[in-house]
Amino acid sequence: MKRIFIAVAVTLLLLVPIVRTSLAVEPGSKGDPIITRSYLETLYSWQATNLQGGQTVSLDMGVQFVLRSGKAVVVGAGHEGLIDLTAGRELKDGEPIPADHLMMSPASDQRGVRAVSQVVLLTRGLSR
Question: In CATH, what number is assigned to the domain containing residue 68?
């Protein structure tokens, strides 16, 4: 009988922190945020973005894109540029962006893309 009592007591002591933690998180709070559909669509869906020659688009941190047609160059911030995830390297300011490479902006500091000719980009996470 004493063994059963000790086993039950230990089990309860182990469960108390788990139950307490789960009850402390309120839905919609910082610990359990609500994600809206529009946020998910902006973050995870691809959109076609058209640029005319000479037009520039600034990219926030984490924005991904693929150059599908046309010619474009990197707009860097100082010595920094955009990440070419396909080639595994950083492209600096003024370097041409290769077609069909997955690119990403590592920061929100005026980095972006400047179209040399008419351009079609597939973008993910670009808020316009």
Answer: 2.60.120.10
